[in-house]
Amino acid sequence: MKKKVLVTGGTGYIGSHTVVELQNSGFEVVIADNLSNSKIEVLDGIESITGIRPLFEKIDLSSENQCIDFFKKYNDVQAIIHFAASKAVGESVENPLLYYRNNLNSLMNILAAMKEHSISNLVFSSSCTVYGQPDQLPVTESTPRKEAESPYGNTKSICEDIIRDTVKAHSNLKGIALRYFNPIGAHPSSKIGELPLGVPNNLIPFLTQCVAGIRPELSVFGNDYNTADGSCIRDYINVVDLAKAHVVAIERLMKDGNKENYEYFNVGTGKGVSVLEIIESFERSTGEKVPHKIVGRRAGDIEQIYADTSFSNQELGWKSEKSLDETLLSAWNWQKTLE
């Protein structure tokens, strides 16, 4: 009998790619999503890739009653991957209560359901935002967390603490937090990819929309940072590589391979890439020109951050594999399917 995994936010960008990898690895998947930042048609893409249509329930997990009803129906879930969260940094600054209410309540409702229904295993979608602007690079798991730059980032830190404290109090629960760096790209089939509703908040979908003529030009926020070319540096990881890390984390929890009840891992490539280098790689891999201009710095942006992935490589037996050029080409191929 297949092991059943609940993927919250499973029609979203990272969630949908993770559902594909879970199904390809033999898991049965049920998705819970309120479709606030995704489309139901994503299920068609997942089914087209894997030959399996995952179970789906439209639900707002921040509602305690809806969550209770959901778990009464799906009380045979053996593990949960929790993606569902509001995630726009700028919006979180403007509307912090929305972010605290949604992101914290949904997690606490899920943890309460895990206790109620004896579900032991949780993988949490965290973020490198918990490190703020680190004093030293690259970032390791022992790098101190810093005060968050935004309410969104703060919800990730608080959620990590909630999980840590809950599994400490209940020895039958186990949790792994995966601290993502910057997921980009799309599935090589071009059946699923990043599909922001409205104006994209992330670099790559904005860039591909500019190349496609949907938006006039890409703004590069600052060229006067203390980096080789003056633009900000991030660690950009292929979304399929990131999705595979979740499968490995679930398997670790189910095999009891974790050394502590609560663990956390950096999930990145270990390489920092600047915004201008992204543009160069995109143009090289696709043959398309990126219309862009240099503008002033953007409030809240940190100068540079990238991961040391040696711990996650060693402990999880996982590492990123896809090149930057290959990843950006996949993003462009996905964009072309949307026109």
From TrEMBL:
SUPFAM superfamilies: NAD(P)-binding Rossmann-fold domains. Residues 6-327 form the NAD(P)-binding domain. Coiled coil: none annotated. Pathway: Carbohydrate metabolism; galactose metabolism. GO terms for molecular function: UDP-glucose 4-epimerase activity. Its EC number is 5.1.3.2. Homodimer. This is UDP-glucose 4-epimerase. It comes from Marinifilum caeruleilacunae. The gene is galE.
